[in-house]
């Protein structure tokens, strides 16, 4: 299923992201994913991440063969934040080790422009 984001509607504190889906047989289907806007604030997730998160939710729902309404939940955003933290930790562990150049000799100044 190929998804294309086409916009959103908002009523009160609920935003509904709309997508057009194209199946392999080229038939078009309209999908909507709703989210309570307070969840973005609660999880410190930017609103601009909404369309991407909704597309991921739709894809997961397709794999699970979920029929019916689609909604981004508190658990979905919590999982997104946990994955973001884990990715940041993996990236941080990769770069640990301090100075990546050659180790300076004890008689060398710590910066080339700093001479004794």
What does this molecule look like?
With 116 residues, this protein is an alpha+beta fold. The chain has three helices and four strands. The chain has a four-stranded mixed sheet with strand order 1-2-3-4. The model has no long low-confidence stretch (mean pLDDT 86).
Give structural attributes.
116 residues, alpha+beta, 4-stranded mixed beta sheet, 3 helices, 4 strands, 35% helix
**Can you give the mean pLDDT?**
86
- Termini separation: 66 Å
Q: Characterize the biggest β-sheet.
A: 4 strands, mixed
Shape: elongated
Helix content: 25-40%
Topology:
Blueprint (H helix, E strand, L loop, with lengths): L1 E10 L2 E9 L5 E9 L1 H5 L7 H14 L6 E2 L2 H22 L21
Parallel strand pairs: 3-4
Antiparallel strand pairs: 1-2, 2-3
In short:
Helices cover 35% and strands 26% of the residues. The protein is an alpha+beta fold.
């Amino acid at each position: 299923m190929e998804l294309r984001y086409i916009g959103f509607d908002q009523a009160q504190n609920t935003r509904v992201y709309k997508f057009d889906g194209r199946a392999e047989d080229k038939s078009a289907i309209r999908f909507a994913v709703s989210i309570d806007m307070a969840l973005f604030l609660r999880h410190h997730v930017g609103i601009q991440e909404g369309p991407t998160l909704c597309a991921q939710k739709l894809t997961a729902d397709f794999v699970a063969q979920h029929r019916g309404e689609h909604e981004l939940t508190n658990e979905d955003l919590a999982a997104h934040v946990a994955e973001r933290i884990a990715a940041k930790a993996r990236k941080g562990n990769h770069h640990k080790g301090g100075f990546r150049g050659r180790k300076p000799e004890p008689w060398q100044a710590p910066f080339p422009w700093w001479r004794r």
